[in-house]
Amino acid sequence: MRAGSVFAIGLVAGLGFASPVIAAPHAVYVGTYVWHEDSPLFGGLSALDLGEDGEAFVTVSDSAAIFAGRFSRNAQGAVTGVEAGAPFVPLSHHGTPIRPPMDDAEGIALLPGGGLAISYETQDRIGIYGKAGRTYVTELWADALKHFEPNYGAEALAADAEGTLYTMPEKPLTAGGDFPIYRYRNAVWDQPFALVRKGNWRPVGADFGQDGRLYVLERDYWGLIGFMSRVRRLTLAGDSIVADELLLETGAGIHDNLEGLAVWRDGAGKTRLTMISDDNFLPTQRTEIVDYRVEE
């Protein structure tokens, strides 16, 4: 098993002499907090986004219940407590809370100005909501999203600093293919690039860091042992991915079913990864908030 693997690059100089080993960027484990909430809507949390301070948060469940509030963190930056407001379900275009089968929320992204975007699968689309998700604005549908398989749809969602949206399915559209990444910019959908498929890993969460790079959380599962998680960092340039770095890869059973990823920067300028697990509303699983720190 590989947990928080650290990779090193040895550069060989002329005449056969090796230069000092330089550690590649990697994520270091900081801590795990198990969240319990006394609400019938609590559970199945599949997405997470954070404010710039890493404390203000918003998360959404598989039944579209939105929880928002603040995390408490210790000196190391690990979550030690959660203060959340009353959960609510966002409105549909009818002005009433969305209901099955329209409520299968999987991704969430804070938008410039305080609005929210939520990706849904089964009825694959992106919902756009006003400040804190309290008001309905519109829904974004695309022909490409209609080709996603049931339960493998718009799983990961991220918004860049300009509010451009990026989403990808949990399963490629063709057997053995890569994961197409769809972009919504200036009221137009396109598919400029794809996440290269590696093994059985599937993308389940995404977020942009303050460095402008796209971080992708992937998941795999080993039978009765448990879930594996990893995080890749993509450097985008126009319509191309120019770098794809592996920051984290855990062994099976190290964490629960991590599905949501939020990226932020601490006071020392370090990039932080905060992830949340989907307990599938099962008593045998937990809602974990897991923190890692990226070392460059």
Question: What does this 3D model show about the protein?
Answer:
With 296 residues, this protein is an all-beta fold. The protein has one domain: 5 Propeller (Tachylectin-2, Chain A). Helices cover 0% and strands 50% of the residues. The strands form 6 sheets. A 4-stranded antiparallel β-sheet has the order 3-22-21-20, with no helix packed on it. Strands 4-5-6-7 form a 4-stranded antiparallel β-sheet, with no helix packed on it. It has a 4-stranded antiparallel β-sheet with strand order 8-9-10-11, with no helix packed on it. The radius of gyration is 19 Å and the shape is globular. Mean pLDDT is 92; it is low at 1-19.
Characteristic terms for this protein:
single chain, 296 residues, mainly beta, Tachylectin-2, Chain A, 4-stranded antiparallel beta sheet, 0% helix, globular, disordered N terminus
